[in-house]
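Something for you to look into today, if you have time. Could you write out one complete protein record for me, on any chain you like? Leave the record below and I will have a look.
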Amino acid sequence: MGAVMKTSTTARGFGADPFSRIGIADVVMNYGLDAVQRRIEQLRVTGLHYAATAIESELETAQVTESAALVRRQSA
C-alpha cells in the first residue's frame, strides 16, 4: 500500500500564493496516483464534490499518469 496522504486541518491553501503551491504532479510523485485517487473518493464521500472535480481536472490538465510519475521519481 502506498503512502497515506495527510488531510489538511486548515484552509491554508485556500487563496494562498499560487507560486508557493506544489503541483498535482508533485503530489502524485510523492504519494502515488492510487493515493490521489483514494483522496478524490474521500472528498466525494464527504460531499466535497467541487474539490474532487478540481483535482480530477488538474490531473487531466497535467496529463499525470502513474508511469509519468514513476519516471519523474526515478530521475529525481
Residues 9 and 40 are 16 Å apart (CA to CA). DSSP finds four helices and no strands in the chain. The chain has a mean pLDDT of 74.
